[in-house]
Write a sequence for this structure.
């Protein structure tokens, strides 16, 4: 059965032949068996028809850095930050990642699944059709496997692509507070083999940062992951220039994320190795910080830049990619088209999915968003509400009127 989208006002997408964003008017689109089969003017009728009524049509967003498996929000920490407490002070009082770890370990899988499904449905309602989703709030073999199983089951229940990432190296759990080497041993000798046997995770991520996992430990974890078939990506240089970007290049990581304090040498090596930078301006904004990642410097050096939400319970509760586009334009110095490409095609490339999602081209998955605006500029401009009119996932309408 074929579906035709007709009367498209502006169709905006990355185009692989031209290697840039293009804007077309007067187009129709035919979708067959969940994929785009034709884009042209005046296409014949199909079995079903969706009238875009002059609206903007784009590919669905690809959010390449999220943490959606958690048991409770940490809104109390927001109030603590507003009152002047630092991240470390909050952690010392029982907050931070370890608070999420305790909650995930205690919550039954069925309840955790329902919460995660709600998070994925919220992404979908905001025009996101693919998410990279991390574990990392279990920090034990049992709880990390539980988190990944929750992601797998949630992906089967919600019409959204989920790319699972194992993030056992997110922090050191309390039982290993005085034995960090022992926890790295556990990750490499027990967790990674168990994760690969489970067969859900596609990537292995590490929080490579001074005070957390140093370069040596991160290298060991990522190389062990590669030996077991897990592709590398990492949190890098969020607080200081720790050598994480250089490590990303060394291990052939698909992405290095955050990068607020990336060094010139790290940028150079990322460019040489083809590592995608995933920048997370929502986290800087949400934490009330002033130092945003150097997007223009990265791009000028030849590094491809994606932008993502970093949705998580502590440092960024944002799920809206239009808002992230707005922040990328205002605070990262990106153009509207650059920010759009960073939330679609480049984000897909950071997952190795650029031939599947992130653009509207013949043969690609039919992940389409119809907007209640008439041109691309309207997406980051309208940040106070949801301008999604309809989301079509793999050729099937799943969201109407932002719901």
């Amino acid at each position: 059965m074929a579906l035709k989208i007709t009367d498209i006002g502006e169709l905006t997408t990355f185009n692989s032949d031209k290697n840039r964003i293009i804007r077309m008017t007067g187009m129709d689109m035919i979708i067959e068996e969940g994929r785009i089969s034709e884009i042209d003017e005046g296409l014949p009728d199909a079995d079903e028809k969706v009238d875009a009524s002059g609206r903007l049509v784009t590919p669905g967003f690809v959010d390449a850095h999220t943490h959606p498996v958690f048991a409770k929000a940490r809104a109390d920490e927001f109030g603590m930050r507003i009152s002047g407490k630092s991240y470390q002070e909050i952690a010392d009082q029982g907050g931070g990642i370890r608070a999420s770890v305790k909650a995930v370990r205690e919550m039954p899988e069925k309840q955790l699944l329902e919460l995660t499904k709600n998070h994925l449905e919220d992404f979908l309602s905001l025009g996101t059709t693919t998410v990279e989703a991390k574990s990392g709030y279990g920090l034990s073999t049992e709880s990390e496997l539980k988190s990944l199983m929750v992601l797998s089951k949630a992906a089967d229940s919600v019409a959204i692509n989920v790319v699972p990432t194992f993030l056992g190296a997110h922090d050191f759990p309390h039982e290993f507070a005085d034995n960090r080497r022992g926890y790295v041993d556990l990750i490499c000798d027990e967790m990674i083999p168990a994760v690969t046997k489970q067969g859900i995770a596609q990537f292995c991520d590490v929080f490579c940062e001074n005070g957390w996992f140093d370069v040596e430990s991160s290298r060991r974890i990522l190389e062990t992951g590669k030996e077991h078939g897990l592709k590398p990506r990492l949190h890098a240089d969020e607080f200081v220039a720790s050598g994480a970007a250089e490590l990303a290049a060394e291990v052939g990581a698909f992405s290095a994320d955050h990068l607020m304090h990336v060094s010139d040498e790290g940028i150079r090596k990322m460019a040489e190795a083809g590592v995608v930078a995933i920048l997370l301006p929502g986290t800087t904004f949400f934490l009330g910080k002033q130092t945003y990642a150097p997007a223009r410097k990265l791009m000028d050096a030849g590094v491809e830049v994606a932008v993502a939400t970093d949705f998580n319970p502590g440092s960024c509760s944002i799920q809206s990619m239009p808002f992230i586009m707005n922040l990328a334009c205002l605070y990262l110095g990106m153009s509207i088209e650059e920010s759009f490409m960073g939330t679609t095609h480049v984000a897909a490339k950071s997952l190795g999915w650029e031939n599947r999602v992130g653009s509207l081209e013949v043969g690609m998955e039919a992940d389409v968003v119809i907007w209640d605006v008439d041109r691309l500029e309207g997406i980051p401009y309208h940040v106070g509400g949801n301008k999604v009119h309809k989301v079509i996932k793999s050729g099937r309408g799943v969201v109407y009127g932002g719901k």
The chain has 15 helices and 18 strands.
